[in-house]
Amino acid sequence: MAFEKTIPLNEFITLQRGFDLPQDKRVMGDIPVVASTGVVGYHNEEKVLAPGVVIGRSGSIGGGQYITTNFWPLNTTLWVKDFKGHHPRFVYYLLRSIDFSQFNVGSGVPTLNRNHLSGILVADTSYSYEKEASDIIGILDDKIKLNKELNHTLEQISQTLFKSWFVDFDPVIDNALDAGNPIPEALQSRAELRQKIRNSADFKPLPADIRALFPAEFEETELGWMPKGWITTSFNDLIELIGGGTPKTSVEEFWNGDIPWFSVVDAPSESDVYVLTTEKKITIEGLNNSSAKLLRKGTTIISARGTVGKCAMVAVPMAMNQSCYGVIGKNNISDEYIYFQLKNAVQTLQQMGHGSVFNTITRDTFKN
């Protein structure tokens, strides 16, 4: 749809800098305190009435937050003081669509000066159009939010099942109890807890065909008591590690291509499994002229330096930087098993990490 008239952003809406509110001045309440990155606390007094729209001014610039309750915007934000007759949620979507990084005036900390935004031209749309557009986008937004919540629930269920089957050995304990086989003393407390769960009114046993995949006895190994017949080995023996790399940033031909290039900033939230897009992309020339490698779909990426232990499963072929490892299974071990095994081991890996400034994960970490 073409619009006949465009006007500067500062004529479309009025943005104002947020307000100081040091931690020691906050009083317990239910009013959200909003920073450039989101809600960072609560206070007993509001500065702005809902609905409100906020963008990052310092630290993290741009973005956009739609606030549905009265709130206190901090001085690291710009908030919409006057919508000038425009639909608030449409303004939110509009601001989210603008790349404010081009207006960064900070030499160290990213900073946005609202006086520099007059050069942004936006369509002078009608309220009726804005309401219709934001209602449609809002339906999609709500669906995305619902899907993320569902994904989070499924992720929790998957991790719970993985721990139950391969860490706590619940199916083996169930089989042993039903067969009358002895439970090793080291596992007695776990077996007693499991028996209480089995005796509860809402207990649902695993299907017989799944339980049949697990043994009904334990045997002692170097690693302690394990399900009988299971092979114990180093995790390193089950996986192939793939290193990453960074094309030369001074060569323009290596960047802004079609190949997603993963760094830790692209790690999905804890409620998500897959990484679909990345902040930066490289070209095939950049891939071929660096140590970066193209990871196949299903590879698990784990961050090894800086922010250690962030995991993501690759949803589309992509490369990554040298601060990460790509992990795939050997001998047809499933991608999903590798992902959840890594997620379960992250805390241990972090404790084992080596590094004088930051904890790191090295190839030797996986061997241990």
From TrEMBL:
GO terms for molecular function: DNA binding; endonuclease activity. Residues 227-368 form the Type I restriction modification DNA specificity domain. Transmembrane segments: none annotated. Keywords: DNA-binding, Endonuclease, Hydrolase, Nuclease, Restriction system. Pfam families: Methylase_S. The keyword Nuclease applies. GO terms for biological process: DNA restriction-modification system. Belongs to the type-I restriction system S methylase family. PANTHER family: TYPE I RESTRICTION ENZYME HINDI SPECIFICITY SUBUNIT, TYPE-1 RESTRICTION ENZYME ECOKI SPECIFICITY PROTEIN. This is Restriction endonuclease subunit S.
